[in-house]
Description:
Elements: H1 2-29, H2 32-48, H3 50-54, H4 59-76, H5 78-82, H6 97-110, H7 114-125, H8 130-137, H9 141-164
Helix pairs in contact: 1-2, 1-4, 1-7, 2-4, 6-9, 7-8, 7-9, 8-9
Amino acid sequence: MAKQSRDAEFTAYVASRAGWLRKVAYLLSSDWHRADDLVQESITKLYTNWARAARAENLDGYARTVLVNTFLAEQRSSWRRRTRTSAQTPDGVTAGTDLDVSMDLRQALAALPPKQRATVVLRYYCDLSVEQTAEAMGCSSGNVKSQSSRALGALRVSAALRVAGGFEG
């Protein structure tokens, strides 16, 4: 009976937060298919450790940390280095002002190294503090600050090149 209750609690949590996890995973990976894989792997890890996760003070933070750690671990694996994803946009995408801006941002975000990308997503999309981001990434606050600074600098350069017409994306 306790396992059924645990499973129902887990299922309810995942059903309510899967869309949010998928958006965060997409911002990290820049690929919807890969985002789905990251979410699936993270949900599996979350289920395995549900007893601990359910006791966490901030369950969303716990799930987000699992997702980011899964992404960063994948980046370090040799499988990821051998696999290439397509940089082409899907055929059904039409051009528009808002779409162009969001695609430019996604391309610039995708060009960042994994830790810088994770830092930007956690700090500016998930709206975490420096300390919360450091905790989620398992590093120091100083590391988060330097990763954020480098990432924002790279994004500014990318934007400046785009405005100057020197960026062919």
